[in-house]
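Dear support,

I submitted the protein below through the web form. The confirmation email said the job was done, but the results page showed an empty box. After a refresh the structure appeared. I'm attaching both so you can tell me whether what I see now is the final result or a partial one.
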Amino acid sequence: MSLSVIDWSIIIAFMALSLAVGVMFTKRASSSTEEFFLSGRNMPWWLAGTSMVATSFSSDTPLYITALIRTKGVYENWQWWCFLLSGMVSVFFFARLWKRAGVMTDVELTEMRYSGPEAAVLRGFRSIYISVAIHTIIKAQIILAMAKIMDVFFGMGKWQAISISFTVTISYALLAGYWGVILTDFFQFIMAMTGAVALAWLAVSHAGGLAGLPERVAAQYPAMHYTDFFPPVDGGGLLGPAALTFVAYMGLSWWSKYNSDGGGVVVQRMSSCKDERNALLGTLYFNILNYAVRSWPWILAALASLILYPVAAGEDPDFIYPRMANDLMPVGLKGLMVAAFFAAFMSSMSTYLNLSSAYFVNDFYRRFVRKDKPDRHYITVSRWATIVLSAITAYVAYRATSIVGVFKFLIAFGSGTGLVYLVRWYWWRVNAWSEISAMLASTVISIVLYTHPAFSGMQFYGRLFTIISLSTVIWVAVTFLTKPTDEAKLIEFYKKAAPGGPGWKYIEDKVAEPHKRGKSIAGDVLHFILGTVMVYGYTLGLGKLLLGQPTEGIFYILGAVVSSVLLYSGLTKRGWEKVYE
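What the results page shows now:
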């Protein structure tokens, strides 16, 4: 252990502040389930957006990105950069829809959109499926990273690290609910980014400075493509593994993932916003911060690590980032960095703890076990659910070994459901059986492809394509072989959410108020394109400028600026909160 009294003081002060927030908002959070899970639906866009990005920035993220670059290169970040596309879909197609729906969780939409006992079964099943299966995988990935960080800094065993890292997070998540999550997310994000920037500056300085860094990396690893922004086409050309994996990311991953229409974390924050305008702005702000701002401190540190810690056969790249922090950071900054790791860990973990309990209580327990109880009863149950789900996660985290491996499995595991979640908003014919069959098919096919020896050598893009294509064939067939949702339910949903698009014309013609028709999606498509160009332009342009390619960098930045102006103009002319056209 190499932490000084100053370092320990910084860490303890941060922990105390987090607990103080929990205690401060305990009474308010305990007043109702709306307060405990959605902060009274009164969140401003900047706080909701910051919370979104703080949640997506966890202790595992810099370790994950460092591992990507040390194994393949900068271009492998398209594994997560591709999700900007689904992020822009959430901004321009779904932010307003989710806010209008007025749900507490995305699973609650099930019985708002579908009818019959199958809708109730789907809601109950999805609540358990997400809170116990999906969220456990996500939380295990986060805890695994924190355990590796604590191993580097404190020499702790895995169980010790898991137990300690959980304690403070569970405490304020149990006390303050969503209020504690949102408010701690704000200063935790600032602290986490400060630590990331500080380490990037130190690592690059020790590696010889930013000027010439790509050339030094290329000279040390002449056969590799560590500084390439796009996958190399040698070793197989356009049909090589790197190129095909990139195609899988950009062509399949972003729309096929289990939260393609926003997902639980983003939907929870959309629902907690003051109005549709704040929901849209918050989600847009999140995507700008998530990709254009936070990427490069980690990428620069990871590139510097290639000089400082030469790649060795059999290494665990997950340890390199915390090792750099431990080796390079002086007294004071080291304590700040440890606190930053805890901040990143706690912001994500507290969100998933709160949201998992929301699924369990709102969509399972209150719906199927104990109805019409006082809010205080459900808040108590949610706190117990948090504890039980945490114990399950701790065990899975102990068994996991690779952060990148867990992330890629999660992408594939839910990939068969993404399309049906998108289509249900724009085609009235999708029913509860569509979702049920998609979930079952995706789960079974994923398990077979990842456990059966016959598929052990299958590339990631092959698994992804197989899961998506087979699952889609199954759920589309089931859709046409089963009865549609009751028309009265569809009309009620249409009036409430006003989804729009040609897929609702059959229901639109039956609406009693023909002047209230869902808005055209043509403007959404244009804004989606402009938003995507804008954020990718800022992301790639900043990277090119930092790595000494000014001509390309300026080109990307100019494209981003033009897209920004056109996007703002289009949203202003159309109306930020216009529901009907």
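Response: this is the final, complete result; the empty box was a page-load delay. The two ends are 63 Å apart (CA to CA).
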